[in-house]
Amino acid sequence: EDPHRAIIRDGIPVNKSVSVQSLLYDSYTKYGSLTAGELERLRIKHRLKVVQSLEDGLSRNIMRSIVTDGYFKQEELMELLQFIREELLSGQKQQEERYDPSKPPYEAYCIDYELFQALFTGISPWGKGARPNDLSARLFRLMDRNGDGLLNVREVVTALGLTCTAELTQRLRLLYILHLPPLLPTADIESPTLSEDGAEIATEATDFFEDSLQLNTGSDTSTPVLERSASTSSQPPLGCEETWEVRSMNSLRALMDAPRGKGTPRMSQPHFIALWRSLHDILTAQPDDQQMYHAIASIGTLLLQLGDVGKKFYAARDESNESLVQAADQWQSPTDTVSDRNGNPGSLADAEWSIALEQFIATTLTGQPIVDFFSQRVDIVEAVSHMRRRRFTTIHTLADLQ
């Protein structure tokens, strides 16, 4: 054997060839305590460490990519992200596709509407009312930019942040936008009949919104807004033009990023009534507070009066620009329809009554109880912990029933 090619280990030449008998003998002598079960245990142990290390690294990347949005603190983001991971790994919410590392980190986890609804009702103060499904469905659709029926982590954080920790005016702007078409189509609203002189305005606003409105909201478990989203995806097929609804949805999303909501469309009366009913539902979910009830009534009445004043102003302006004959012809044709600035068809009277986002925010800010409510910052860590405790209790209750 060539000594120049010999293997040297610790200064001692080692033969390159080893007999099988010697190898087996050394193995049983040195590692005889190892069993197949022990090897499997070690394999699983180290595999879990590797997987956990990868998950922790991915979580840190996700947090770095969205913490600059400013909605939540780092520990709050970690708690929320951990809860989403737990739900996805629980076996009830499975990821449809594996994460593509070429995509942004926050797209590693995506949730469907069912899980988002649970987060919305469990964390957001907007989800504590008697009818939270309507708001959660519209908010989900607004955040679902690609129309795939799923929200990534960033979209979830944005949705919850805008309702839990954002500035007062941002929250009011979002509430306003959630009641504009096509998020709230006119077909879903049946407005109350008002007399020509607006006699309804003289009634107590709380009774007006609770008793006079007939909204087609459906059952608490239905999500009609999401049912329409399948045919109005934000991503139209190749070679097809975007529909009006898709373009309008994209415009509403752009308004969320616009400074001070510049360019936000005016709101018609039926949509405003639906908005104020939602606001009433959110605020009355709080402990009984007479000041809150009074603020809701007085501000709602004032906004109705502002819209009625604007209606008279536009009517007077139209009469000065058109002949009396044309005005008489229009009055004799109640079935004629026009489109408002939102592109929503409606009667001539409906198109005249409207309020602006600035009017809504400025008037709402005069009610201190409402200002206090929308200025409160939700403790996300405590809210998520409460959801965990409730889930734990539910699981044990079901186990006892079985």
UniProtKB/TrEMBL annotation:
Record-level Gene Ontology MF annotations: calcium ion binding
PROSITE patterns in UniProt: EF_HAND_1 (PS00018), EF_HAND_2 (PS50222)
Keywords linked to the UniProt accession: Calcium
Keyword Calcium: yes
SUPFAM superfamilies named among the record's database cross-references: EF-hand
Domain of life (superkingdom): Eukaryota
Comp. bias intervals (Polar residues): 219-236
InterPro entries named among the record's database cross-references: EF-hand-dom_pair, EF_Hand_1_Ca_BS, EF_hand_dom
Keyword Calcium included in the entry's annotation: yes
Ranges where the record places region Disordered: 219-239
Domain EF-hand: from-to ranges: 131-166
Descriptive protein name: EF-hand domain-containing protein
Organism, as annotated: Cuerna arida
Lineage, top ranks: Eukaryota, Metazoa, Ecdysozoa, Arthropoda, Hexapoda
